[in-house]
Amino acid sequence: MIPGIGTAVNVATVLLGSTIGVLLGNRLPQRTRDVVTDALGLVTLLIAGTSAVAVLDDDLADRVGDSAPMLIVLGSLLVGGIVGSLLRLESRVEAFGGWLQSRLAGEAGSAERHRFIEGFVVSSLVFCTGPLTILGSLNDGLGNGAEQLVLKAALDGFAAIAFAASFGWGVAASAITIVVVQGSLTLLGLAIGGVLPDAQLAAITATGGLLLVGVALRLLRIREIPVADLLPALLVAPLLVELAAAIH
Question: Of 65, 70, 75, 247, whose CB has the highest number of CB atoms within 10 Å?
């Protein structure tokens, strides 16, 4: 299978799901759309929990010791959060979403603009921070097949319907984020010629799970956590695994 086909399928399902969601959302009252968003928040929380338990992975414990995995995840979030906040990633993502809204949706009121940006930011984070994003894209680039990304594409397509029913066309704009993130990881897979060690993948998965908790809290309107500022934690996690392994 041609490397990159999984990302292409993923983009197609998100665009299709977004179109269906927008057409459906215009016929739903605001209260119903809020309930849909709450349901997505709860499901995102469930997915986050199943990812976060990777901190208990046996390969990770064998590599760094039993007490280190929690500290690795904590250190990843702290260091990643500091780096992300200094780089103002959240503000840059929101600004990019606002620019897209003005280019793609034309002039709109502040409420519609905020809705577009929120849809772009939230859906981009949900679609691009899960373990299937990393594992699927890497394996696609390594020539191991795109089955994981095809599965992710199906899940994202259904999620896009629900997101777009609440947030509108901002969800479709997240296809750009998918191309950039998954395309970059696929190229990385082509370059490195082999998968990351299981211990490092477990650390990345656990850290990504906690980032999804932040996304869920936003969807449930509990707290507006700047999850984009925490994204560098996904790069810090495997580095801390190597550091802890050297000390262990």
Answer: 75
